Amino acid sequence: MIAVGSEWQCPMRDLFERILNEDDIKGVVLLSRDGTVVFHEFVGDAGHNLPEVALLAKTPVLGEAKEVEVLYENDRIYMRMFPEGLIVVWMGAFARVAMIRLSCEVLVPSLGKALSAKGWRRLFKGI
Questions:
Q1: pLDDT digits (tens, 9 = 90+) for 28-61
Q2: Which of 16, 27, 92, 109 is the most exposed place for a label (fewest CB within 10 A)?
């Protein structure tokens, strides 16, 4: 498992680079199916709300939905579920949601492999 805050996050950060470089993105959280935070990165002081974002991702409102967009205070939270986990993208009002959705759609196959047992070894092979 990735130790949050360690140098092991580098390969995950590379996977999320495209999303994190979009305008008005405040952060990204990757949760496993059981709700464990696998990866997180925030821009500025947005990280202080990590427990609230993780709690929101565990609510039953998600049901069987593949993707959900939620208004939260003055921001938006986009959640994309896939069999191995959940991507949560926290963004401001002016973020390009279509690009975030596309980036998540492209990212999901890589994350599916990375979160499987074999995928973890392959992801950290170069470390």
A1: 988 887 778 888 888 877 666 666 666 666 666 5
A2: 109
Q: Of how many residues is the chain composed? A: 127
The two three-digit tokens of residue 6, written as one number: 């360690």
Alpha carbon distance 81, 57 (integer Å): 10
CA distance 53 to 68: 13
pTM assigned to the model: 0.75
Cα dihedral: 107, 97, 9, 120 (round 10): -20
- Among 57, 67, 56, 62, which Cα is nearest to 108's? 67
Burial of 19 (0-12, 13-18, 19+ CB in 10 A): buried
CATH code of the domain occupying 7-123: 3.30.450.30
Token match 């921001």: residue?
75
Residue 124's φ and ψ, nearest 5 degrees, are -100, 15
